[in-house]
Specification:
The complex is a heterodimer of chains A (168) and B (275).
Chain A: H1 2-22, H2 39-42, H3 50-68, H4 73-92, H5 106-109, H6 111-134, H7 140-164
Helix pairs in contact in A: 1-3, 3-4, 4-6, 6-7
Chain B: H1 2-10, H2 12-29, H3 31-34, H4 45-59, H5 63-90, E1 103-113, E2 119-124, E3 137-140, E4 143-147, E5 150-151, E6 156-163, E7 168-172, E8 178-182, E9 190-194, E10 207-210, E11 222-230, E12 239-244, E13 253-259, H6 262-274
Antiparallel strand pairs in B: 1-2, 1-13, 2-6, 3-4, 3-13, 5-6, 7-8, 7-10, 8-9, 9-12, 10-11, 11-12
The chains are: A mainly alpha (168), B alpha+beta (275).
Chain lengths: 168, 275
């Protein structure tokens, strides 16, 4: 229990620093920017209570906001992601796919499940984030393409992270 | 009452979600008030010291380019000095015009910067203890960079030109017509100049400099050159695209401009609006 807590804490610090110092400086063809920090919410255990999920989403977003001078923008998007997570899990898994004490990781859940899971949540998060950031539906196609490209980038990074670090 | 409580308990997750979203929205919408809350921006001690550590590391890889920049600036200053010395020989009159004390310059280093957001900010490694104050202009070797809005003990931060919330008063160098320059959120190399009427003669390549009216920047600091312009039918002003002279993707050393008479000017101008 304590070990798990420590593990998640380290993951939080590493992801926030990675996002603030490296990923925020990546500009593929101008404006495509991956937001890998959502991985933290994706990987929380299945048993995490929903209210805790929401709080963690909110404060994770707020951390990123503090580092990128955008109070509220990431916080709202990550809260939205945390709110959707249980519904996404219900949608793609039958009752017996989820075993107790297994975290939602690629190695436990299989590639197909994990890809669908990441695809849904990352897309929702990025669309929310980019539209809240510009705060207008003017230039809809431009914002849409920015969020889709960034989402694709993030999804690739999430999948790679599963093969590199969380192999076990 | 009881059924209300039951209702709340049953949908507590949804209500918590709504509450957190409302808090986020308030944060976003009241942004300008929250700028003053130091905790929430990157001049606060924790995030600024992390950024400085990272900047200390990466600055080694840019030493060559920075050297070139400094050498070039040095050369420009040398030529200016030469001209002044020539002046000095001819005039033994009062030199108060040359030693103008309105503006003072403080060198600083950019420790955090972005170009890919809609609202981009720079964080600098100088703060209150180095004499930095709010509303000081930030100037790079190639022209205007931004303005300081937040100051902590050792750091300061503020919007760069690449921030849709900030505008700067600019003019066309050759004929002194002035307008306001802003970024439209797309390309970090280009900005827009507004409020230039149709009868003004323009040409691609005309130099755009600060007007000096905002009292944040001295007059005549380079901003960029006209890249293209056109007038839409029905509009009153030209649509002018400016190619910015500063490359925000590589900028690292800047100078902060302090206007020693800023307060006096603002107080004087406030008397006008009181009437």
């Amino acid at each position: 229990m304590i070990r798990d807590l420590l593990k998640y804490l380290i993951m939080l610090v590493v992801l926030v620093l990675l996002q603030a110092l490296i990923l925020n400086n990546i500009q593929f063809s101008g404006y495509v920017n991956p937001y890998l920090y959502v991985l933290f919410i994706l990987l929380l255990p299945f048993e995490t209570p929903r209210y805790l999920l929401l709080f963690m989403g909110f404060f994770l977003g707020l951390f990123i906001d503090i580092f990128s001078n955008t109070p509220g923008i990431h916080a709202s998007a990550t809260t939205f992601l945390a709110f959707l997570r249980p519904f996404a899990i219900d949608l793609i898994s039958s009752r017996d796919t989820i075993e107790v004490n297994t975290p939602p990781r690629l190695s436990f859940m299989g590639f197909g499940w994990f890809l669908r899971y990441t695809l849904m949540l990352v897309l929702a998060h990025h669309l929310f984030l980019f539209f809240v950031e510009v705060f207008t539906f003017e230039g809809f196609i431009y914002t849409l393409s920015r969020s889709l490209l960034s989402a694709a980038f993030t999804i690739v990074l999430v999948i790679i992270s599963q093969f590199l670090i969380f192999k076990e | 009452m009881r059924s209300l409580l039951q209702f709340l308990a049953r949908f507590h997750v949804f209500f918590l979600f709504l509450a957190l979203e409302v808090i986020s929205l308030i944060l976003i919408v009241n942004y300008n008030n929250f700028q003053r809350v130091r905790f929430l921006n990157s001049s606060n001690q924790l995030s600024a010291s992390v950024y400085e550590m990272s900047s200390n590391l990466t600055s080694y890889f840019q030493l060559k380019r920075i050297n070139e920049e400094l050498a070039r600036e040095n050369a420009e200053l040398q030529t200016k000095l030469q001209k002044l010395q020539v002046l000095d020989i001819f005039s033994h009159a009062d030199t108060s015009v040359i030693s103008d004390t309105t503006y003072q310059f403080i060198p600083a280093r950019i420790i955090n910067n972005s170009v890919n957001k809609q609202h981009n900010y720079v964080t600098l490694n100088k703060g209150l203890l180095d004499g930095i104050e709010q509303d000081m202009g930030i100037i790079g070797p190639d022209g205007v960079v931004g303005v300081v809005t937040n100051v902590s003990k050792h750091y300061s931060s503020g919007p760069s030109i690449l921030n849709r919330r900030w505008r700067v008063s600019a003019k066309i160098k050759k004929n002194n017509y002035f307008g306001s320059l802003y970024w439209n959120g797309n390309d970090p190399q280009y900005a827009r100049l507004n409020e230039i009427p149709f009868h003004v003669e323009l040409a691609v390549g005309d130099t755009i400099v600060t007007s000096g009216y905002s009292s944040i920047f001295p007059e005549g600091i380079l901003i960029g050159v006209i890249d293209e312009f056109n007038h839409d039918s029905g509009a009153n002003f030209y649509q002018i695209n400016i190619r910015l002279s500063t490359n925000f993707k590589t900028i690292s050393h800047v100078e902060l401009v302090k206007n020693n008479f800023l307060e006096e000017q603002i107080n004087l101008e406030e008397q006008n609006t009181d009437d």
